[in-house]
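Example 9 (inverse folding). The structure is encoded as follows.
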């Protein structure tokens, strides 16, 4: 019977050590913090109803030094997969210590899709977003997620009375408080604010989109997933580049449809002309 308390104490000690190591890792990575914080905005709000302007107003009201950058607001409504792809493409293009507010949340307020803030050490970035799969392509074992449940950092410092606009009530004020911490140029203040936003969310509760990895069969077929279709009609897949350019000509079959379509592997659009001339 004496072994059980020891086991519990050991597990608690390991958890505490892991927590402090993660906090120390963030602290050590914070150098040359920007005095004018950058906040990148990604949503499906569009520009018709003023939702984007509202969150910008809250941000600048709480942190006047912050500079807001519109990445995209015409994401198809509720299309989490498209937003996840846009985030994956855009995140590496931004400088270190960019703050992100990324919201595409068709089930806002769902108890299993909590509002979170994520620290992504590979990108040196923080992202406020719903835990609904939007961060699927940018999370790693080194990421740190926290459940946003501290009303001190919410709009009007209270729990939202209505839960249909988390971007206004939770994400915008939270990211503004993080921006103010960055503007202080104090790594200690940044880490302290991050920790105060809410409890750590274990990786077992992180939500991912159900995207199967691309595979090659013994018959030589490549099976992948269409992630999205961009505004030019390009089909974006999860096939790695070496696979996509393995051959100059192949065919694709959609699902169980027996019809096959030709696929041309090209490096630029001008190469399409040679195929059109042969057609």
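The amino acid assigned to each position is listed next.
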């Amino acid at each position: 019977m004496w072994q059980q308390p020891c086991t519990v104490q050991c597990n608690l000690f390991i958890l505490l050590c892991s927590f402090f190591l993660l906090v120390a890792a963030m602290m050590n990575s914070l150098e040359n913090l920007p005095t004018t914080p950058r906040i990148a905005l990604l949503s499906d709000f569009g520009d018709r109803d003023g939702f984007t302007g509202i969150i910008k107003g809250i941000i600048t009201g709480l942190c006047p030094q912050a500079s807001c950058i519109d990445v995209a607001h015409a994401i198809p409504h509720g299309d989490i997969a498209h937003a996840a792809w846009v985030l994956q493409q855009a995140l590496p293009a931004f400088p270190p210590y960019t703050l992100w507010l990324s919201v595409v949340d068709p089930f806002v307020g769902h108890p299993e899709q909590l509002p979170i803030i994520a620290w992504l050490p590979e990108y040196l970035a923080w992202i406020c977003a719903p835990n609904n799969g939007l961060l699927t392509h940018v999370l790693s074992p080194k990421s740190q997620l926290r459940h946003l449940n501290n009303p001190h950092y919410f709009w009007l410092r209270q729990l939202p009375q209505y839960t249909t606009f988390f971007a206004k009530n939770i994400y915008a004020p939270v990211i503004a408080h993080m921006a103010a911490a960055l503007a202080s140029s104090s790594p200690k203040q940044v880490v302290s604010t991050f920790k105060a936003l809410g409890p750590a969310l274990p990786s077992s509760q992180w939500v991912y989109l159900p995207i199967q990895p691309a595979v090659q069969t013994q018959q030589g077929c490549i099976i992948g997933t269409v992630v999205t279709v961009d505004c030019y009609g390009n089909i974006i897949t999860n096939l790695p580049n070496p696979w996509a350019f393995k051959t100059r000509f192949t065919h694709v079959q959609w699902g169980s449809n027996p019809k096959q379509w030709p696929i041309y592997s090209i490096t630029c659009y001008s190469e399409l002309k040679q195929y059109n001339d042969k057609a």
